[in-house]
């Protein structure tokens, strides 16, 4: 086999590998501490769609004003999200306060 044929086959193999690779994106869904059940279900459905597609999800909960005094409500909401999606995802980063935001990162379960 000559060098030109070898280089051609390596180039073709690299192109096939690049074609088959999938980039994982991080999708973000924002909640508030007083998010009602209807809005919660819509956001949960979006999270489910993202996770089934294979993307990581970042769940952000933003506090405003007096809501900062009741951060335990935000922790309960994120815990509820984690339990509702435990069949689809694992929590990659536990809920963490960053200023006025509480964030949690979830990754889809490998099949």
How would you characterize the overall build of this protein?
The protein has 111 residues and is an alpha+beta fold. The chain is built from 3 helices and 4 strands, in the order H-E-H-E-H-E-E. It has a 4-stranded mixed β-sheet with strand order 1-2-4-3, covered by helices on one side. Strand 3 and strand 4 form a beta hairpin.
Summarize the structure.
The protein is α+β, with helices and mostly antiparallel strands and about 110 residues long.
Q: Top keywords for this entry?
A:
four-stranded mixed beta sheet, 111 residues, elongated, alpha+beta, 3 helices, 28% strand, 4 strands
H/E order of the elements? HEHEHEE
Strand runs, count: 4
Low-confidence stretches: none
Main beta-sheet annotation: 4 strands, mixed
Count of individual helical segments = 3
Question: In what order do the strands lie side by side in the largest sheet?
Answer: 1-2-4-3
Helix content range: 40-55%
The shape, in one word, is: elongated
Average pLDDT: 90
How far apart are the termini? 40 Å
Q: Any idea what the radius of gyration is?
A: 20 Å
| Share of residues in strands | 25-35%
Structural class: alpha+beta
Write the layout of secondary structure elements.
Blueprint: H1 3-20, E1 26-31, H2 37-53, E2 56-62, H3 71-84, E3 89-98, E4 101-108
Parallel strand pairs: 1-2
Antiparallel strand pairs: 2-4, 3-4
């Amino acid at each position: 086999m000559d060098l030109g044929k070898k280089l051609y086959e390596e180039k073709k193999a690299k192109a096939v590998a690049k074609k088959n690779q999938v980039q994982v994106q991080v999708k973000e869904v924002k909640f508030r501490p007083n998010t009602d059940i209807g809005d919660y279900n819509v956001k949960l459905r979006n999270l489910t769609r993202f996770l089934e597609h294979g993307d990581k999800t970042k769940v952000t909960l933003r506090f405003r004003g007096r809501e900062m005094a009741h951060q335990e409500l935000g922790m309960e909401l994120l815990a509820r999200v984690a339990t509702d999606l435990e069949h689809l995802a694992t929590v990659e980063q536990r809920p963490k306060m960053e200023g006025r935001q509480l964030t949690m990162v979830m990754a889809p379960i490998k099949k």
